[in-house]
Amino acid sequence: MNDEPRSRWTGPGRSPGFLLWRVTLAWQRAMRAALAPHDLTHVQFVLLASAWWLGDHEEPPTQQRLAEQAGADTMMTSQVVRKLADRGLVNRSPDPHDARALRIVVTPEGREVLAAALRDVEQADTEYFAAVDDGFVDGLSRLLR
């Protein structure tokens, strides 16, 4: 039996997983840079933006619904939402239908911070992904189904 490592790819630059890893790291650096002036981590931004979107298009989300929308762990979501609440960017209030659940509402200050951060994140996205077309986004979406 041969225990030598073998790859079906001709090199790391041909492995989709390796390329995705490298692209993800580079994109995360771009996101950190875009969010630094707003004193937000990427996770905080995603949860704040998701809470805003759900609140404006559906209803103020519970922490569970917010975690589902963001694809995040519920315990981590709870911790991050607590930090956002401590900063006055969101309010957590009891759900009238479920005493165990909390509804998350973006405050006026949170909307202001989000509006500025969203502009910077979308600009960073536009610049970062300028080399790819809409088919790339469609392909990524198919991977999540």
What does this entry look like structurally?
It holds the Pfam family MarR. This protein is mainly alpha-helical and 145 residues long. It contains six helices and two strands. It has a domain of 91 residues: Orthogonal Bundle (Arc Repressor Mutant, subunit A). Strands 1-2 form a two-stranded antiparallel sheet. Helix 2 packs across helix 3 and helix 2 crosses helix 4. The longest helix has 21 residues.
Indicate the CATH architecture of the domain at 40-130.
Orthogonal Bundle
Regions with pLDDT < 50 over 5+ consecutive residues? none
Instruction: Name the helix and strand elements from N-terminus to C-terminus, one letter apiece.
Output: HHHHEEHH
Strand content: 5-15%
Structure classification? mainly alpha
Q: What is the overall silhouette?
A: globular
Number of helices: 6
Identify the quaternary structure here: single chain
Report the end-to-end length measured between terminal Cα atoms.
38 Å
Q: What is the strand arrangement across the widest sheet?
A: 1-2
Overall average residue pLDDT: 92
Query: Do you know the CATH topology of the domain at 40-130?
Result: Arc Repressor Mutant, subunit A
Largest sheet: 2 strands, antiparallel
CATH class category name of the domain at 40-130: Mainly Alpha
Number of strands: 2
Q: What is the CATH superfamily classification of the domain at 40-130?
A: Winged helix-like DNA-binding domain superfamily/Winged helix DNA-binding domain
What share of the residues lie within helices? 55-70%
**Radius of gyration over all CA atoms, rounded:** 19 Å
